[in-house]
């Protein structure tokens, strides 16, 4: 059973890094900067041991699918500067990365910041730490 979600849980240890990234994006006039800042502003911040393993966080692997597709993907959510193996990674500085940040398995969220008139939805199928 899937659920639409507005709940966002972020690990306290990641907040400073993510906030710095968001401000860097704003400084470069990247429209994803304000989007990431808004997500962080509405997030519930918890210590790492209090964040459910089913929540997408930095360095976790998320298996997801866009709702208009049957194809699933599994990617590790990373900071842009941590990229080592792009086919297996998803930057948190991307529309999809921002959408997935802090949501849980079985959640569906809209992928904002794509520039599409009707932004797609993504469903989180599984999260692995």
Task: Describe the protein in words.
The chain is α/β, with parallel strands linked by helices and 129 residues long. The protein has one domain: Chitinase A, domain 3 (Roll). The chain has helices spanning 12-27, 32-41, 95-100; strands at 3-4, 9-11, 44-46, 61-66, 73-78, 89-91, 107-110, 121-128. The strands form two sheets. The chain has a six-stranded mixed sheet with strand order 1-7-8-4-5-6. A two-stranded parallel ribbon has the order 2-3. A hairpin with a 6-residue loop joins strand 4 and strand 5. Helix 1 packs antiparallel against helix 2. It is globular.
How many separate domains make up the residues?
1
Q: What gyration radius follows from the Cα positions, in whole Å?
A: 14 Å
Taking all residues together, what is the mean pLDDT?
90
The main pleated sheet reads as:
6 strands, mixed
**CATH C-level name:** Alpha Beta
- Tally the helices: what do you get? 3
Order of helices and strands: EEHHEEEEHEE
Report the CATH topology name: Chitinase A, domain 3
> CATH homologous superfamily, by name?
Transcription elongation factor, GreA/GreB, C-terminal domain
In what order do the strands lie side by side in the largest sheet? 1-7-8-4-5-6
Helical residues, percent = 10-25%
| Structural class label | alpha/beta
């Amino acid at each position: 059973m899937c659920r639409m979600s507005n709940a966002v849980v972020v690990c306290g240890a990641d907040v400073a890094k993510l906030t710095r990234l968001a401000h860097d994006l704003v400084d470069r006039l990247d429209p994803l900067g304000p989007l990431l800042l808004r997500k962080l502003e509405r997030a519930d911040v918890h210590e790492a041991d209090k964040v459910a393993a089913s929540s997408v966080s930095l360095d976790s692997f998320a298996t997801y699918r866009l709702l208009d597709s049957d194809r699933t993907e599994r990617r590790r959510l990373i900071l842009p500067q941590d990229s080592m193996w792009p086919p297996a990674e998803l930057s948190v500085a991307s529309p999809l990365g921002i959408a997935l940040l802090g949501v849980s398995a079985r959640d569906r969220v809209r992928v904002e910041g794509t520039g599409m008139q009707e932004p797609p939805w993504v469903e989180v199928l599984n999260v692995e730490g």
